Amino acid sequence: MTKRLLWLALAVALTASLPTVAAAATGDAPTFDTTKVAEGVYTFRWNQHRNMFVVTEAGVIVTDPLNPPAARALADEIRKVTDQPVRYVVYSHQHWDHTLGGAVFKEAGAKFISHERCLPHWERRPHPDLVLPDLTFNGPGYDLELGGRTLELRYFGPNHGDCLIAMRLADERILFLVDFASPGAVGFRILPDYDPVELIRSLREIEERLDFDLVIPGHLAPTAPPDLLATERGYYEALMKAVGEAWEAGVREPEEMVRQVRLPEYESWKGYADWLPLNIERAWAYYHMGW
Ligand SMILES: [Zn+2]
User: Fold this and answer.
1) What's 3-234's CATH class?
2) Most buried pick, 125, 183, 236, 290, via CB within 10 A?
3) Ligand 1 centre and the CA of 138: distance in Å?
4) What SS3 class is residue 199?
5) For residue 194, how far is its CA from the centre of ligand 1 (angstroms)?
6) CA 231 to CA 210: how far, in whole Å?
7) Would the pTM of this model clear 0.85, i.e. be above it?
8) How far is the CA of 63 from the centre of ligand 1 (A)?
């Protein structure tokens, strides 16, 4: 077994066998849990959203605080596995459902990082629960180093929002990728703020340029194998192809497009019945408006 395969087997075994560090749910309260993915690498889930945090001997790196109650629960979860302070909070992209609630970490002295292209958006759409970044980077990448670990932040252009970055733990070969690939699910509702063509391009470029053995997605399952990206890309390619073919055949109204287009190979995916029609309408807009 190669070192890479051994690592993957270990990572999958760890993910499968370790119980969650904590879980709290009473009545209708939001549920959260923390899953250990590798040594010092954890994913925290709050309802359908999740992030990654990385414990090093010089402090903790947190990604995406999500929202104020989630961030408070996350801070407690981190305290259960380490006494190290949170040094950095890295935003995956601009959207409020992933980025609010960082004040609890800011007050404790953490530095916040995002891609520079998030800033114009946050100037247009400020939010009282959003902590603005202390450090931004421009261009394709920035390497965040802390306590012997390297978290690579990589930008692939506008695709979902303006400033989404893929994050890769270099030595551990783990990719944290938000909103691009939710295992076994069609796209979210109307694909808000997604450019489907740029999404397909970005997924392909991430597959080609980054080496990773495991993915932590921003939603649903705690981990997925690397072929998650190709599987998700296949869905969006099939969606755009089917809608494009209907357009070429003369279908012009979105309601008729929704009636005609089917993707039977994805029928078992979460959201197929309710959200595929919304995904189709988003794809229709590309052919109707060039958007
Ligand atoms: Zn988003």
Assistant:
1) alpha beta
2) 236
3) 20
4) helix
5) 8
6) 16
7) yes
8) 14
